[in-house]
Amino acid sequence: MAKFTLAQSPKPLPDLAFTDAEDKPLALRAYKGKTVLLNFWATWCAPCVKEMPSLDRLQAEIGNDKFVVLPLVARRPVTPPGRAVLWPTGSSPISASISTRARKVLGALDVSVLPTSILIDAQGRELGRLEGEADWDKPRGPGPD
User: b/e map of 40-67 (b: 16 or more CB within 10 Å)?
Assistant: First the structure.
């Protein structure tokens, strides 16, 4: 599993704009008051697709009104703008899209690796990030991976 890098202090994030699975406008501020695991992925990224089922299970297991897994897909420009992109498993409708202005969003958060997962607190601040594929089913605790 890739290493989670803790932010030196909670870092305020810009209010990101993206679209939901039905191509309706949405913004990160809509999740204020919740802890968010923001996952940037792409359909053409094999490690991204590989980790999706475990992210899906994480959402199913602990997702609630205080915690949500928010997968943002960076679609290739050739993807039609109205096409909804869901989890590869097809089991969750919460996947969102950043196809329009994807580079701007990725750049604003200094995301250069896919997949990247950013843990955001209820105030909308970055607590830390994990770059690269992770198995979200593995138990976590002190000690080596």
Answer: bbbeebeebbebbbebbebbeeebeeee
pTM, rounded to two decimals: 0.79
Summarize the confidence of residues 121-142 as an average pLDDT.
Answer: 85
**Do 56 and 37 form a contact (C-beta atoms < 8 A)?**
no
Answer whether residue 61 is part of any domain. Answer: yes
Q: For the chain, what is the domain count?
A: 1
Q: Is there a domain that residue 4 lies in?
A: no
* Separation CA 44–CA 6 (nearest Å): 28
Q: Which residues pair with 26 in a beta bridge?
A: 18
Per-residue pLDDT at 128: 96
Domain limits for position 107? 14-123
Q: Does 17 or 140 have the greater pLDDT score?
A: 17
**Could you give the C-alpha distances from 69 to 8, 54, 87, in angstroms and in order?**
23, 11, 12
End-to-end CA distance of the chain: 7
Q: Pick 90 or 67 by higher pLDDT.
A: 67
CA–CA separation, 45 vs 31, rounded Å?
Answer: 26
